[in-house]
Amino acid sequence: MRYLTPLAALMLILTAAVATAQPAGSPNPPPSDEIVLRMVSERWVESTDATVRVAIAAAFQASDSSDVRGRALAALDAMAPQANWTITSFDQSEDSSGLERWNILAEARIAENALGGMRDRATKASEPGLKLTLAGIEFTPTLAEREAATAAVRREIYGRVTQEIAALNETFKDRSFTVSRVNFVPETSYAAQPRMALMKESDGAMAVSAKLVVNAEVVIRARPLAVE
After folding, report:
1. Does 217 share its domain with 147?
2. Among 82, 95, 123, 212, which has the highest number of CB atoms less than 10 A from its own CB?
3. pLDDT digits over 115-140, tens only?
4. Are residues 151 and 178 in the same domain?
């Protein structure tokens, strides 16, 4: 894991203690001392599989078009038997010759080590009236992978906050510092970066990692000074 140098722009807003005692029942309590920390942490989120997208062009006589969806899925299974294919688009039209035509888009997450020769496999899985074309291979982390990385980075920031509070309480023994709030703003940002090239094996696909950046504003508050 890499860390950005904390912007721990330690803004110690030490509000001066009230010089005179406040009357009992005063609506304004003694002011608290606050420390505002700005922390930034980052890590690379890598994925072990890719989203493979396939375009299917189908053309059949009306009498032969009763199960186009099933035939398309069978061809996709022949192309990548272990994949769980999802059809994301299914459009039908009729041309001037009376043929019924379908434009179908499908996608699946496929392991990196199973991507070899995907373009050739699409060609081999095609049949008369049903043409498969590799539309793209995209290496991006899944939502679950991103959320797991975000949770891990937040735990790391919480650990650093705990260390800051321990250091403050050790230094200022007459005060009791506690965390007031932790705001993640903005919560996350991602930037895709190349991880490794798979030009031959995966028809030009390039695996990437996503850089997760988490920014946190931490407010630590001390117990108000006693009013004499």
Report:
1. yes
2. 212
3. 889 999 999 999 998 999 999 998 88
4. yes
Contact 118, 52 (CB under 8 A): yes
Peptide bond into 186 cis (omega under 30): yes
- Give the DSSP per-residue string, the chain: ---PPP----EEE-PPPPSSPPPTT-SSPPPPPEEEEEEEEEEEE--SEEEEEEEEEEEE-GGG-TTHHHHHHHHHHHH-TT---EEEEEEEEE-TTS-EEEEEEEEEEEEGGG-TTHHHHHHHH-BTTEEEEEEEEE----HHHHHHHHHHHHHHHHHHHHHHHHHHHHH-TTS-EEEEEEEESS--EEEEEEEEEETTTTTTEEEEEEEEEEEEEEEEEEPPPPP-
Blockwise average pLDDT, block size 10, the chain, 228 residues: 42 36 51 85 87 93 77 94 93 83 94 90 94 92 88 94 95 91 75 48 58 92 71
The boundaries of the domain holding residue 24 are: 11-47+142-222
pLDDT in tens, 49-72: 899 999 999 988 776 667 888 999
CA nearest neighbour of 52 among 104, 100, 115: 115
Q: Please tell me whether residues 15 and 55 are part of one structural domain.
A: no
Report how many domains make up the chain: 2
**108 & 147 share domain:** no
Q: Is residue 148 part of a domain?
A: yes
Same domain, 78 and 132: yes
pTM over 0.70: no
Does 43 share its domain with 147?
Answer: yes
